Amino acid sequence: MTNLATRNSKSWVTGCIAIYGRRRLLGCEDMALAVVINGQRRVFEQLSGGCFMDRVVDELGLKGDRVAVERNGEIVPRTEWTRTPVADEDKLEVVHFVGGGSGLDR
Fold first, then answer.
1. What is the mean pLDDT of residues 52-71?
2. Is residue 87 a contact partner of residue 44, using CB atoms and an 8 Å limit?
3. Mean pLDDT of 7-18
4. Closest CA to 35 of 17, 15, 57, 14
5. Which residues contact 16 (CB under 8 A, 6 or more apart)?
6. Mind listing the pLDDT tens digit for each residue in 22-61?
7. At a CB cut-off of 8 Å and minimum separation 6, what does 84 contact?
8. For burial by CB atoms within 10 Å, which of 10, 50, 60, 104 has the most?
9. DSSP three-state, residue 32
10. Any idea where the domains of the chain sit in the sequence?
11. 30-96: CATH, from 3.30.1330.30, 3.40.30.10, 3.10.20.30, 3.10.20.740
């Protein structure tokens, strides 16, 4: 785990940009996050300071215990959301769980 002094260093930012691309949030704090969610592009201006999966789910207004998220073709376990970075142009698939019966009396 990095501390804030390390995270704010020029070499750390440069490393993030080299690894994740020019608009990677962890290295480019002045840019908004743009992702594709269920096939539709969405921009999050408020997530411009480093972003992880849990924050994206919160911004969508979803309850974490009722959704599953796939990032770039891989399911992200809920226990990993706080450690899973979301990069610009990532493709997310979000599935909502809905409870209830058929409504038919038997």
1. 93
2. no
3. 49
4. 57
5. 24, 26, 27
6. 444 444 455 788 999 999 999 998 886 468 999 999 999 9
7. 52, 53, 71, 76
8. 50
9. coil
10. 30-96
11. 3.10.20.30
How much of the chain is helix, strand and coil, in % rounded to 5? 30, 25, 45
Angle at 22 (CA atoms; ends 10, 50), nearest 5 degrees: 70
What secondary structure letter does DSSP report for 18? H
Q: What is the pTM of this model?
A: 0.65
Q: Which residues contact 19 (CB under 8 A, 6 or more apart)?
A: none
Q: Pseudo-torsion of CA 67, 97, 74, 58, nearest 10°?
A: -10
The token pair that represents 104 in the structure block? 């038919």
pLDDT at 48: 62
Confidence of residue 19 (pLDDT cuts 50, 70, 90): very low
